[in-house]
Amino acid sequence: MNNRFTNWSDIRVFLAVLRTGSTLAASKTLGMAQPTVARRIEALEHTLGLMLFDRDTRGFKATEAALALKTDAEAMEMNASSVAITAKTFKSTASKAIRVTGVPEVLSENFAVILSDFTDQHPEITFDFLATPETLDLANDEADVAIRYVNEVTDPSLICRKMFSQPMALYASQAYVKKYGLPASQDDFSDHKFVVMSGGMRKFRDWITGRITPDQIVMECDSYNSVVAAILSGFGIGLLSTGLALDKPSLTRVVEPIEDFTVNTWLITSPQAHKHPRCAPSPSSSPRATPPC
């Protein structure tokens, strides 16, 4: 008996004959010629030193030895299928661009700067930016990496790294200051107009609305970019991160950074994406990941 089993594909042929009861039916299932199926069964029997099928005019009937091997053969079939799927997934995901999601202002103002160093270190990696104000579901594979402006990440299943924190302060355009002047303090807002953000960052909105009357709000914006644009256009005073404001020379700081008012920027991945080699390097390791405040 030759007990050195070397041709794993014969297991697939064996199972096809076992399930269909004939080499003709198995050949149709496998997409190969009937004589080839018959030769593969004979070769497997020779290798194992066992008679796997009794042949008669009605077809191939499994012997006791074949039935004893069925469970192990099906386990091998399942493992082979799993290996193929894993390899296909790995090849596909390893070659794709990393899908990065975040609100437009994060990707345009901060993250592109960080990537200038990161891509020098990892030229083989490319990125697909999904700029949206919506929070994409990483767990459902809507994106690989998220860059988010939040105080804390509340989902314990996500893998998070704080990239940096920036204080928040009130800013106005030079045109606004020329027309309305500056408040003497954060308790002297009665003669001023304000731009606020609706929805997210509730803590910051509540701080402003608790110090003014509703008629002082001249614009509500649904995105951080819109707040920046409205302030730059002279509509009113608004809260901005100090790091972002440094890049806008036409802005004037109205009130110094507010105590305990910081906005955190997080790099977030799902456990599934974190395992892929394309997501293994982290842009937050860049020496430029912490902007000036």
Automatic annotation (TrEMBL):
Pfam families in the cross-refs: HTH_1, LysR_substrate
For this protein, the record's PROSITE patterns field holds: HTH_LYSR (PS50931)
Q: Which GO terms describe its biological process?
A: DNA-templated transcription
State any single GO MF term.
DNA-binding transcription factor activity
Is DNA-binding tagged as a keyword?
Answer: yes
Q: Where is the composition biased (Low complexity)?
A: 279-293
Among InterPro entries, the record links this protein to: LysR-type_TF_proteobact-type, LysR_HTH_N, LysR_subst-bd, WH-like_DNA-bd_sf, WH_DNA-bd_sf
- The HTH lysR-type domain covers which part of the protein? 6-63
TM segment ranges? none
PANTHER family per UniProt: HTH-TYPE TRANSCRIPTIONAL REGULATOR, TRANSCRIPTIONAL REGULATORY PROTEIN
The molecule here is called HTH-type transcriptional regulator CynR
Supply the source organism for this entry.
Boseongicola aestuarii
